[in-house]
Records
---
Amino acid sequence: MPRPLSHIRVLDLSRILTGPWASQNLADLGAEVIKVERPGAGDDTRGWGPPWFKDLDGKDTSDSSYFLSCNRGKKSITLDISRPEGQRIVRALAAKCDVLIENYKVGTLARYHLSYKELREINPHLIYCSITGFGQSGPYAPRPGYDFVFQGMSGLMSITGERDELPGGGPMKVGIGIADILTGMYASLAITAAIVHCERGGSGQYIDMALLDSMVAFNANQISGYFVSGNIPKRTGNAHPNIVPYQVFACKDGHIILAVGNDSQFASLCKVIGRPELAADERFQLMSGRIVNRDALIPLIAEIMRKRGIHEWIEVLEGANVPCGPINNMEQVFEDPQVQHRELKVEIPTSAGLPCPTVASPMRFSETPVEYTVPPPTLGQHTQEILQDLLGMDRPTVQALAAKGII
């Protein structure tokens, strides 16, 4: 059975993380993705190591694990798009593609005569997705954008981290490039929606994705509370502003997460920890009371949780249907029976004979499952194939382009 986007071809002019994350999602859905990279250097993240992917002899290759994480399922072509010959090839490819993704600074591709306005004259059905830090308009549009900056500007760091008055308090970023990943996800959704529009008789269109926009939207539930109440949300560490108890507690041998989301779960928790009377206490009986009286309740629970080990607590809490869990490191994640059952680690065969490890897509289809057969490409691996088979160039022409450093 063909995968959902197996009829779609994507021209990917993006690099680093946001655009490649979006195009990898499309590749997972079956799209043919042609990744355009700089001759000799490639996507910047190829060099963002260590750690590096190893060859059969255990030696470092030139590709970082960072690059591998967001470029499976793609074909790589090297092309200098700053030169007229390279620009002509991009235009020829755009004429044969359904989607173009780019994350250059505002105005860069227009200088290369590769703007949406120019390319849609070649291909009216082209879906052209631009990803920038601040979007195509506004006072900040010309600025470069980085994930860390948007975690701060969007308000996320104002609600992430321990309270200022406690040890270690202060704003804290999330441990991954969440603005990049999130914008890549939104871009994937926008592109697939535009594909549906086009296939229903519409035309191609331009998609303006901004990391700042995505991160502000990401904070919607906290922002909604601010809009309604006028109260500026604050950092609560590992606690939840609207659910109690919903935080990390120290145990005898580490830490555990309690995520008690309703009153019946709280009653079960109180029974398990040997304090059933807390569930009948007027201060704590309802969630609204537990929120108001958080400072009285949490120390009582914390004292009890220190008396047992993590796994002992998890066993009894799960037996009582109280949501809880450990705080795993990355090794422990893939030792977890549920993670193993879901096969979240996938190894893709490579031509070198050494499998490339990758994290499985969370998209699970009953009829058109994601396939893991195409590893992240080596730099320029498919240049000759694409130029000759897709664009119909003969071998001497390709060799001439290589001699000039165009490819």
---
Amino acid sequence: MPVIRICTNCQQKNRIPAEHLSDTGRCGSCKSPLAPLAEPLPVDATLFDEIVQSAKVPVLVDFWADWCGPCRMAAPEVAKTAAAMAGKALVLKVDTEANPQLSARFQVRGIPNFVVLSGGRSVFQQAGLVDHAQMEHWLETAASYAA
């Protein structure tokens, strides 16, 4: 299940396989570089599993809900983390209302809830509001586990 990314140069839609979301690619039309994913990616269970199983970099998962005030406060921090860690990590957003099976799989009891995965396995999990510096630290630590 590829992710659709739009080229900033020619506006062409490009299908990017999950295993290449952290890579710099090329637009299929104009051949301009396509930067690694630098924003949080909303996912369902199918896309979540595909990305986590094929990711070459650590993955931060933000479990959230639209009605949750602290989740809305965390969103800009999650976005900063995705931008700062582009190419070095992926950031996924899981809506707990739309994907209760994923929430149950990770025993999410409170939101926001952050899970860091490396090599398809959970290496860290914490509920509560944190800043982007803490999220980046988790991802850098997870990358050192894989190295």
---
Amino acid sequence: MARRRRAAILAIAVLSTLATLALAPAVGATYPARNGLIAFQADVGDNGPQIFTVRSNGKQLHQVTHVDGVAAQPDWSPDGRRIVFTLNECAIAVVDADGGNLHEVASDAGACLNDANYTPDGARFVYTRFDFALEIESIWSMKVDGSDRRFITDAGGPDANVSPDGRKLSFKGPPDGALFVANIDGSGIDQISPSISVTYKHDWAPDGRHLVVSDNSDPSPTESVNVVTVRPDGTDWTYLTHYPAGYRANVGGYSPDGQWIVFRLEGPGLVPTMYRIRPDGSDLHALYASSTIIPRFIDWGPAAHH
């Protein structure tokens, strides 16, 4: 009798654990994580941008790609070993962090594929697809080998990102260029920023509680660009920087440990500089400055693991 009682108790405990796991959100592979290299695109000569990496102390700048054309919009894999990027504006390619094993993953003769980002489990990309014939921009997903392409939504397109728990999708959408959040299947779309044209780069905090974006994608000379955080439900719209007219603070994203936000600052009399700042707006540090290799579309990756 005692043996049967113990077996029953064990079975109940196992079922309770399984139920808890089923209800718990999937934790992103990059949280918590150690901070690794920072990737970005920068113009090189007349051919357009290539992908670079730099250490988080601003040292050891390394040019990752040397393609005959354009390499842009880098995004780190959750294991910190690879970078997905846009190749020649309308194809998606992957490269190892050291520049090896560069290969095209996907292209489409009838469409432009770009702006790919890894899902937190590293198994798929979400990306933007522009249909030339229909003139429709939409968000799709596919496996990292380019197969199993699935439509998600045509409510937006640029910089689609999946939340760390894998349940939400964020993107810049029409008509004003605001920031939106939807369910991962494209349903339940909510505008979470004011009706302004936010920048074409944003990011989720590794704990999924906030997103970071900059507030002006096309500033006039009398306007500024500043870094803002907001909750996924649209509350707590909070400015981290307060630069005056003429200054541009274009955000890259969060560090993998969630302790920093990286952005590029340009303005009158300034050499373009990459900075890091705490998510509460404190502890500003310059990381890297250059008048020739100017970091754009910045993505802070995790330390590589195997």
---
Amino acid sequence: MSRLDATFARLRARGERALVAYVMAGDPSLADTRRLVIEAERRGADVIELGVPFSDPLADGPVVQRAGTRALAAGTSLPRVLEMLAALRPQVSLPIALMTYYNPLLAFGLTSFAKTAVDAGADAVIVPDLPYEESEPLRAQAEATGLDLVQFVAPTSTPARAKAIARVARGFIYVVSLTGVTGERRELPKELESQMRTLRLVTTRPLCVGFGLSTTDQVAAVGRLADGVIVGSAIVRKIEEHAGTSNLVEQVGDLIASLKDPLRLGSSGGSAAVTKGKR
């Protein structure tokens, strides 16, 4: 059983939902990224989505784009991220999924990437600009090494397409809650509940919802529907606000703890948290 499979099985048995915390590698430095991931696990994150900076991040909103620009300016690259991950892995036990775009993987070489990523301690890879119809070359290399290739399902995915994606998904399915790029939103899309019901009919894979989630109320509400909640921009913004300060790690840790709290309570607790937050 992979680390991801074991994590979701354990959480499901306890009635909890996973907090998937996104961190851009190299922002503000790779040394800080190591400290932030260690703190994220300590404060309750269940999975880390570790962003690899790229010059043309099509799926990223302005907050994550700024983080990627800073990381690139500091010299962060895919090989350096993998080196950092190899040094970090003995210090953390939670699953780590690399979020990168397809060009860096092609430049690295798909076979070499899959092997190096697994050797470094990665559990999965998330590639937002790789549609499932074109994912077979990477999927073959990933499966050969035990690396999970996470697939995306969008609000525009038809039931037939969602079923086809679910058949090849590994680790979990990344449910995009809205059309557009990542970033904090005021409200959850009204169609999310029906989207999740449709997906439950075609797969038993864990469903993790991302894009637009930033508050504890939103996390609690999505926790009633999903197996996991992915939070990116809110965490990256907190890092941006406190970069270079002595309390960077503490501030980010406090945010992660607050985001995890409603997910520890299971679906009924999430409902209570939403009700309390709206009074």
